Every structure is written in C-alpha cells, then in structure tokens.
Amino acid sequence: MRSRGLDLARGRVDLTHGAGGRATSRLVEELFQPAFDNAPLRARDDAAVLDLPPGRAVLTTDVYVVSPLFFPGGDIGRLAVCGTVNDLAMVGARPLNLTAAFVLEEGLELASLSRIVQSMAAAAREADVTIVAGDTKVVERGKGDGVFIATTGLGVVPPGVTSPGGARARPGDVVIVSGFVGDHGMAILSCRDGLAFESPIVSDTAPLGDLALAMTAVAPDIHVLRDPTRGGLATTLNEVASQSGVGIRRRERDIPVRPAVAAAAELLGIDPLYVANEGKLVAICAATDAPRLLSAMHAHPRGADAAIIGDVVEDGDHFVEITSTFGGRRILEWSSAEQLPRIC
Amino acid sequence: MKYVDEFRDGALAREIAGHIAREVDPSRRYVLMEFCGGHTHAIGRHGLAELLPDQVEMLHGPGCPVCVLPVGRLEQAVTLARRPGVTLCTFGDMVRVPGRGGESLLLAKAHGADVRVVYGPAEALRFARANPHREVVFFAIGFETTAPTTALAIQEASREGLTNFSVLCHHVLTPPAVGALLEDPSNRIGGIVGPGHVCTIVGTSPFDRFAREHGRPIVVSGFEPLDLLQSVRMLIRQMNEGRAEVENQYSRAVTREGNRNAQARVAEVFELREVFAFRGLGPVPASALRVRSPYAAWDAEHKLGVPDTDVADHPACACGEVLRGVRRPEQCRVFGTACTPDTPLGACMVSPEGACSAHYRYGRLRSAGSLVRRAGATP
To answer: Are B203 and B339 found together in one domain?
Structure first.
C-alpha cells in the first residue's frame, strides 16, 4: 500500500504529481504551502486577492532554466525569486508578491525539489515578498531538465519616486555598479560538465529590492537602474546606450572584478564583462546625485563595493567604449552568443 | 592577477610605443602580419593599434582555426552529426560557423542532431566511455597547438579498445600556411608576428627557411600586450637593419626545438595529407594531418565514410582575401551590414579570433566616420 505522505527522503516526482489529483494535492499541502505559507495561499482559491499600497503597480515575469540546478552560492529556486524581484526593483518598485509555476521532470528527486522550494522560501523572506499563487506540471522523463520555474512578480512604485527607465540616460550622467561583476556566470561555468575547475567563486544571486529602495530614498530621480544578468555588464550598457541614444565611456580599471573571476575568465578566454550577474545593479544618475547615491549604496550590505565606472556622453553611434587597464580604447560590443571558451 | 598584470603595464607599454615611434623611418611603411587569431584578438582587446605610429600597419593573418576550415569540411561534420546515433563533439567556436546553405552545427542541433560543445578531446572521450550506445565523433580542428591532445585521445581510445569513439581530423599546420602566404605575389607582408602557442609545440626552427627564402623577419610572440609591442619593435628593428631572421620574443614559453614529447605523439598518430584546401589560401601541399592507418578504427573519415565535398563560400563573402591579408575586413562589402557577429556569413565573423569579428568588436574606433552600423540599431 502507498504511504500517505510524500517521501521527501527517497521519493521521486512521477506523472501523478502533475495530474491534479491527490498526489498533486499532497505536493501542495506538504511541500509548497508550509514553505511559502501566507493567507492568500492558505485560502486555496483560483487566484490570490491582494490589497496594494498606494503607488503605481508594476508587473513582470521570467522563466528560469539553469544547469546545474544547484551551484556554488545558490540554486534555481533562489534564482527564480531574486531574478524576478530584481526586475521589479529596477523600475523603482517595492517588490510585494510572486507567483511560481513549476515544470517538473518525471524522476526528479523529491529531496531536490524540497531543497529548491525551501531555498525559494528563504529568498522570499530575505526579499520581503510572499509567494501567493502557483502551479505545477510534470513532463515525462527526458522532456525537461529536472525543473523549470516561472515566476511572475508584482510590486508598487511608491508615490514621489520617478521610475528609472533604459531610455533616460543623458550626457553628463555617471554610471555606477553595485559591486563585483561576473560572479554568477563564472560560478555556473566552474561546475559545468567538462569545464569543472576548483575555484572559490560563488554566485552573487541576491534580492536587490532593499538596496534599490535605499537608493531611490536618497535620489528619487535615478535615470536608469538595470540588473546586468544575461549578457553581463557590457550588454546592459549597450542596451541603455541604444535606448537612450547616447554613448558610454568606461575605464576598465574602475570596474570591480574579483581576482578569482578575472583569473578564471582569462584562463577560459571569456570576458567577465559579458558574464551574467544575479545580484548586482547598474545605476545611471545625474552627476550631482552620484555622491549621495554612492554613500547610500556603500552603507548597504548589497552595495558595499559599489563604484563609479564611467560616464554618459553624446555619441551618434551609441558606442560603449572602454579604456583598457592598459590604456588602449576599444568598443564594447553587444554579446552575440553564449560565451564559449576559445580553442587555443 | 599575477603573471598577467605584469604584461599589461600601461606605463611600460607607452614607453615601448615611444621607442617604436622614434625608431620608425617616417618615410617607410611597415606592414606586419600577426599570423595568430589569438594575437588579432589581443591587439583588438587592448587597443594596441592606437599605440602604434601611422607607419605601422597590422594585417590580420589566417591563424584562426575555424576561419581556415573550408566549408566542405564543415559539411562533413554536419553530415555526421545528422546521422542517428552519432554525437558530434566540438569546440565552441565551431558550432556557429555557417556551412552549406548557411547551415551551422547549431542549426543542425536545433533540427535534432546531437551536437555538444566540449573543452577538448578528453571530454569527448569521457562522454564516449559513459555513453557506449552513442557513436561519439570528436570534430578536431586547430593548428599544432591542439593536435597533441587529439593524438593522446586517439591513443587512449586505442589502448582501452573504445569502439564508439572516433575523430574527424582537420588539424592543419602553420609553417606551410605561412609559406603559402609569402608565395602569394599579391601579399604585402613586410614582417610576421609569429605564432607563440604553435611554437611552444613545434619550436621556432620550422620558420627559419621562410625568413631565409623570402627575406621577411619573423618574431615569435607572446599574447599579452607588452609581448606584442615588444615583438613589433623587434620586427621594426630587423627591417631597419635589413635583417630577416627568426627571433623569439616569447622565450618564457618557446624554445628552438619545441615540445619533443608532443611532437612525437603527433607523429605516432598522424601523417601528412598530400594537400589540404585552406579557406582563403586554397590548396596547400603537406599542410594538414590525417590519422595513420594503424589508428584507422578511430578515424571518422575512414570508419564512418564521409566524403570531402567541395562547397563554395558565400558569394558575397571576402573571407579568402581577408585571411590572406589582401583585403581588410572593412573592405568586404558585406562587413557590418549583412555580415555581423549576430548574422555571420563567413567564419571570420564568428570566432573571437577571426579578423572580421575582431575588427567588428574592437577595430572600428579608428574608422568611426565610415563606420558601418550594427544591423537593426536605431540611430
């Protein structure tokens, strides 16, 4: 006879967990609900009913696919919470609620799923958001990569805060980054099949809502806020240059890169400026706001290593140009594909 | 970063650049070719061209492994990858190179082929051991630098009696390619920045005869910016003094004899092809390696029977002339318009070591006025 409860130690996801019957219900009752516990979820209605504080509502969504599921400094669950929370924060919103949809592959260990869910719950507490609705589907073995997670986030821009936007950079503005770049992508690479190398690099996956609020509190008109995820810092700055119709000039020596990240990148022939970050933001603001903003960032644990890395200039070509540590200048292009190790 | 930062000292670089500026003859042009894609990449990444006086022109050479592979050879890999049961493993740069009708290995993968990016042949070998039901083919490309590891993988497979592993071998050789460049009557090369990594394996001696027979100085160079600046200075000195010798700037890694052990492994496993058609250079005698018959069981061409077909390059693509240094990337009529890193028509736009890709990424500041915009960018 089947045991009634979920066997979180040895059990595996099977097709019944996504069929909407009793097994699905057990998954919700024994795993998701206790971890994410909140009133709308407890109500178990078809949708969460929410009261929002004053301000403008902000909505975003993202899908998370990562291999391996667990990596130094995080896992897909933490990533799925932080990534969406950060997208809300980048338009000046206070992140409030998330929904989470899981596509589980048949055969996934319930112990892994449980770890991922606990990690999501912890990240949600850290980010001060609640996960108020969700869904689970199971696909046959071989049709998924363990687990895919989609999260949708809701937040509110407080009254008095002007939403930053990618098209608002102006010549004369300064570019600030909140800390060391390249950590997340290099941490993932360091444990990929075949590339695995020993390194002290850990992912920077972290929620940035609180840091962003601390920033908008001292500088309510930050022109641009972006989290340089896929494509890295270089791609984010190119997006902004193109959207705002400006050029950006940077000095390589000003960009904070950890020595271990720089060394691993050098070894693999990868440029850390194109590597993903999951707990960093780029702020572009008027030069007069910069000192205030920088000291607010330095006072926050997620911004302790913040630094000014460049200036916005007029440039009809919308080039992001970098002066190397070495003194030469070059254009920092958009990334054109996943960063792959060079041949020799 | 220890052992790297020392070779990227900006103040020292400006000092060497100052020496170069004083030593060049103002009435003379110094046309230098860096053979290696790795050098092309480093020159771009560090903005070295800006530090050189106008008299010095750097031509990008053909030393980019994916760039010199003719489309027909790529077609072999695509054909193999499409076969049921085959897993094709190759280097990352290779998967995006457009083949026949624009079909790359990446596109073949999207259509169901099992194509995997690996860091080297050892990884392909591990995959073959772990997946005995798959026929694992390592698509081996590259110059002398990568050939020894392919040789080792074949020897290991042979020792273990691994029957589901084979190598599609398209390793090519540097000295014959240098010879072909210099024999081309349209070449403008005054001196050559020699291939540092290749020379760690083969040594500097195979290049002696080119310096002697063609009267062109060759300086084997390291890959850091100070290495390259010093090599340029050494070439200019040779040219000013009317010398044409092989000099070794990269003495911390390169010897005259090279790595004898690696050379021996390569000689055990591989033999010379009578001729190999380089993209851009055309047929070059004794310029590529194939697997020796005792190892035929691990030679994909022999084992799986894939004929080499002749496939023409994209008609608008000037890769061939770019690879020979006859045309500069920006002189190709599709450069930056139809052909960009996002939509490459030719291999030179794919690899970070390719001349067109390097010029697109790094080289456009000098010609910003005539710049070709990124397709789709809104002004």
So the answer is: no
Whether omega before A68 lies within 30 degrees of 0, making that bond cis, reads: yes
Cα–Cα distance, B154 to B354 (Å, whole number)? 28
> Which residues of chain B are within 8 Å of residue A194 when distances are taken between CB atoms?
118-119, 123, 126
CA distance B51 to chain A (A): 7
Q: Distance between CA B272 and CA A186 in Å, rounded? A: 40
Q: Is the pLDDT of residue B60 over 50?
A: yes
Query: Which of A269, A328, A342 lies at the smallest CB-CB distance from B47?
Result: A328
Residues B231-243 have pLDDT tens digits of: 999 999 999 999 9
Mean pLDDT score of chain A: 91
Q: Which of B8, B92, B197 is nearest residue A325 as measured by Cβ atoms? A: B8
Is the minimum CB–CB distance between B18 and chain A shorter than 8 Å? Answer: no
Mean pLDDT of B327-347: 87
Query: How many Å apart are CA A208 and CA B45, to the nearest integer?
Result: 32
Q: Is the pLDDT of residue A328 over 80?
A: no
pLDDT of residue B176: 95
Question: B6: Cβ–Cβ under 8 A, 6 or more apart, which residues?
Answer: none
**Quick check: is B376 in a domain?**
no
Note whether B8 contacts A: Cβ–Cβ < 8 A: yes
Residue B47 is assigned to a structural domain of this protein: yes
Q: Are B274 and B360 found together in one domain? A: no
Q: Which of A309, A326, A250, A235 is nearest to B47 (CA)?
A: A326
CA dist., res. B271 & res. A138, Å (int): 53
Instruction: Report CB contact under 8 Å: A329, B365.
Output: yes
Rounded to an integer, the average pLDDT of A97-101 is 98
CA B325/CA B335 separation, integer angstroms: 15
- The whole domain housing B182 covers 1-312
Query: What does the alpha-carbon distance between residue B68 and residue B177 come to, in Å, rounded to a whole number?
Result: 10
| The last residue of a domain, from among B295, B312, B329 | B312
Domains in chain A and their CATH numbers? 15-157 (3.30.1330.10), 174-331 (3.90.650.10)
| B27/B131 same-domain check | yes
Q: Which two tokens stand for residue A4?
A: 């009634």
Quote the ipTM score: 0.75
Express each pLDDT in A286-301 by its tens digit: 999 999 999 999 999 9
Q: pLDDT (tens digit, 9 = 90+) per residue, B296-335?
A: 999 999 999 988 888 888 888 888 888 888 888 889 988 9
Domain count within chain B? 2
Return the pLDDT at B273. Answer: 96
Assess whether pLDDT exceeds 70 at residue B369: no
Contacts of A344 in chain B (CB under 8 A): 38, 65, 142-143, 145-146, 197
Is B221 in the same domain as B335?
Answer: no
Interval B325-354 mean pLDDT = 86
Query: Is B4 at the interface with chain A, CB within 8 A?
Result: yes
Measuring CA to CA, how many Å separate A163 from each of A94, A122, A221, A288? 11, 28, 7, 18
Q: Which residues pair with B270 in a beta bridge?
A: B291
Length of chain A: 344
CA distances to B173, B260, B287 from B272, in Å: 9, 18, 7
**In angstroms, what is the C-alpha Rg of chain A?**
21
Q: What DSSP string describes B24-70?
A: S-TT--EEEEEEEHHHHHHHHHTTGGGGS-TTEEEEEEEE-TTTSS-
Dump pLDDT digits (tens) for B253-266.
999 999 999 999 99
B46–chain A Cβ distance below 8 A for any pair: yes
* Cβ B273 vs Cβ B288: under 8 Å: yes
Indicate the residue among B277, B295, B312 that finishes a domain: B312
Determine the residue of chain A that is closest to B52 in CA distance.
Answer: A328
**How far apart are the C-alpha atoms of A82 and A84, rounded to whole Å?**
6
* Nearest CB partner across the interface for A343, out of B5, B9, B91: B91
Write down the pLDDT at residue B169: 97
